[in-house]
Design goal:
Elements: H1 2-13, E1 17-22, H2 26-43, E2 50-55, H3 66-75, E3 80-82, H4 91-102
């Protein structure tokens, strides 16, 4: 309960949000979609700077349908990149894109 209040406080004060899920865990994509909805609700505005990242793109096995992710992001006007924190793939680029979204 207290973590929810703290999270909501950060959502309200945040200027932009990097939404990261694991490409090898479909449940994390569902969680990120719920977080996006909560952010939009709490910010109470149509324009919230968001950036979606499918992490662990360096792993061969993927549970998440990347075409479904791209369709979701296109529908919601959210930029999307596949990243790997381990291999440093598109990490810097994802933050740069979020900054562009915040402008």
């Amino acid at each position: 309960q207290e973590y929810t209040a703290l999270r909501d406080q950060h959502f309200q004060s945040g200027k932009g949000f990097l939404l990261v899920f694991a490409l090898n865990d479909a449940a994390t994509f569902e969680e990120v979609k719920q977080l996006k909805d909560q952010i939009i609700k709490l910010k109470d505005t149509k324009r919230v700077p968001l950036m979606m990242c499918g992490n662990k793109c360096d792993l061969p096995e993927k549970e998440v349908d990347t075409k479904a992710v791209q369709a979701y992001c296109t529908q919601n006007k959210i930029p999307y990149l596949e990243t790997s924190a381990k291999s440093n793939i598109n990490v810097t680029e994802s933050f740069h894109e979020l900054v562009r979204e915040c402008r």
